[in-house]
Amino acid sequence: xxxxxxxLFDWDGTLIDSYPAGFLAxxxxxERFGIPFDRQRFLETYSPxxxxxxxxxxxxxxxxxxxxxxxxxxYAQQVSELYPFARDTLSVLRGSGYQLGIVTSGNRTRVQxxxxxxxxxETFAVVICHEDADEKKPHPQPLLNALRSLGRKAxxxxxxxxxxxxxxxxxxxxxxxxxxxxQYSTRSVLEQASPNLLLPDAGHLPGHFxxxxxxxxxx
Length: 219
Hints:
single chain, 6-stranded parallel sheet
C-alpha cells in the first residue's frame, strides 16, 4: 500500500441494514405484476443489478420503469438503519488514515438521502451509485470509476461487500476483496466466491486494517 490506502464499501447489507425494506419493496413489485414471490425466491433471484432479477422472474422490459417506481416508493415508506458497528468502524478506519468510499448499485437519490440522514456525507471521498456506471456489478466498471475519481490504483485498495457480485467486481478490478456476511448472502455462498478475506461483518475490519503508519496491513 506504500503508506496510502483506500477502503471502498458496498452500501446495502454491508453498512446499512436494508434487507427488510428491500424485501418488502420487492414483494410490492411482485404483487403488482402477479409474480409468485417469498423470502426464498427473493434470495434465489436477488442481484445488485436488479434488472438481472427482473429478467430472472420474467418481468418484461417494458415494465421495468414501472417496477422501479413501485420499488422506490415502497422502500421510501420504510426506515433502514445503519448496522450498530458501522459508524464507529468508519470513524476508526478514517482515523487510521484510510480514504473511504462507496460503490453501490443503489439509486443515487436514495443513497445520498440515507447518507445525509446518518450524517455520513462527508465521510466518503467518493460515492458511486447505479447511475454512475453503464455496466453493473459484477462488472468492474463501477469500482474502476471510483478509483479513477480518487486517483488510486486497485492494488492499493480494498473493496468490502456482502454479495458474491461484490467479490467478483473487486477481483476483476484488481482490488483486495473483503466479504462480509449479511441476510443477503450466507457464509457458504461467500466462501464460493473466494474473497481474500471473509468476516462476520464489517465491524471486524479494524482488526485487520490497522493504522497506516504501522505498515501492518493484511494485504
